[in-house]
Amino acid sequence: MLSGKSLVIIGGTTGLGLSAAQAFVAAGARVVVVGRKTDDVEAARLSLGEAAAGLAADACDPLTAPHAIEIALRQFERFDGLYHVAGGSGRRIGDGPLHELTDEGWAFTLNLNLTSMMHSNRAAVRQFLAQEAGGAILNMGSVLAFSPSPQYFATHAYAAAKAGIVGFSKSIAAYYARDNIRVNVLAPALVETPMARRAAGDEAIRTFIKTKQPLDGGRIGQPRDLDAAAVFLMSDGAKFCTGQVLNVDGGWEISEPPSE
Predict the structure, then answer these.
(1) What is the pTM of this model?
(2) How many Cβ atoms sit within 10 Å of the Cβ of residue 180?
(3) In angstroms, rounded to a whole number, what is the distance separating the alpha carbons of residues 50 and 120?
(4) pLDDT number for residue 208
(5) Cβ–Cβ < 8 Å for 246, 233
(6) Of the ranges 67-71, 194-198, 255-259, which is most confident?
(7) Structural domains of the chain, count
(8) ∠ Cα 84 36 176 (to 5°)
(9) According to the model, what pLDDT value does residue 257 have?
(10) Inter-axis angle of helices 116-131 and 64-76, nearest 10
(11) Residue 241: inside a domain
């Protein structure tokens, strides 16, 4: 489905991003994976083989995405799409319920999740416009943007950032549709990634998930659960699809939490 395409994955060296990179390569794409840690970048690049290039850089740096796109153009001679996965929790910095939320936690969490995405999307759109050939952008959201969980996931800056991703993505999708630039969002629920270790190791949360994410036996999601959706939205099979939010959430949004 992605044969011949050259894609950049911001946050592509661990978790959801690495799983997507593997799926993209398996579907025929060549990828540039970006991550903060040099060791992770090198391990990801080696695991992906000759179809991959890597860049160790911070997604919050406005120069990172342009650099990654330059690598795609230089090494693979084209740039067809951007998948922005990078982001994470600001809990250790001060994110939490509003009455406990610190200014530092707010600024850190929005920068990590929302501002970094703006930087990468801006770089992609500028390149697409210069190419005059369109392209695809896929951004990582979260069900917490519109389906909160007050008992276990009360990180209000994170929810605001992910809601911002939805609003931003829809707005730019509308503006650039005339240029054949597509912008969509994937919204997972709880997925077993490095960011989710706290939740995945909490027995009360695991019990909660059995009812809140009831599909496939009621389990925490795995990165691979999002891969097919990501491949589709980056492919020409989705060429008539833009401004959409696709929940890959095990039923989270439509399910009730367990009764007391």
Answers:
(1) 0.96
(2) 14
(3) 24
(4) 95
(5) yes
(6) 67-71
(7) 1
(8) 20
(9) 77
(10) 40
(11) yes
Please report whether residue 125 resides in a domain: yes
Is there a contact between 59 and 34 (Cβ–Cβ < 8 Å)? Answer: yes
- The CATH number covering residue 250 comes to 3.40.50.720
Q: What's the confidence (pLDDT) of residue 258?
A: 72
Predicted local confidence at residue 260, as pLDDT: 58
With respect to residue 1, please indicate whether it lies within any of the assigned structural domains: no
Cβ atoms 165, 113 nearer than 8 A: yes
Q: Where are the alpha helices (DSSP H) in 13-99?
A: 15-26, 38-48, 64-76
> Which domain does 146 fall in, by range?
6-254
What are the start-end ranges of the E strands in the chain? 6-10, 30-35, 52-56, 81-84, 135-140, 181-188, 245-248
Q: Is 83 marked active-site?
A: no
Strand order from edge to edge, sheet including 81-84: 52-56, 30-35, 6-10, 81-84, 135-140, 181-188, 245-248
What's the token pair of residue 60? Answer: 């919050």
Q: Which of 74, 85, 87 is nearest to 6 (CA)?
A: 74
* Over residues 117-126, mean pLDDT: 98
- Calculate the average pLDDT of the chain: 96
Sign of torsion, CA 194 33 223 162? positive
Q: How many whole angstroms separate alpha carbon 106 and alpha carbon 91?
A: 10
Report, as an integer, the average pLDDT of 179-199.
91
> Across residues 226-236, what is the average pLDDT?
98
- Please tell me which residue in 152, 158, 175, 176 is annotated as part of the active site: 158
Rounded average pLDDT over 195-204: 80
Residue 68 has pLDDT above 80, yes or no: yes
Which pLDDT value is given to residue 196?
74
CA distance 174 to 162: 19
Write the DSSP symbol of residue 191.
B
Q: Is residue 259 part of a domain?
A: no
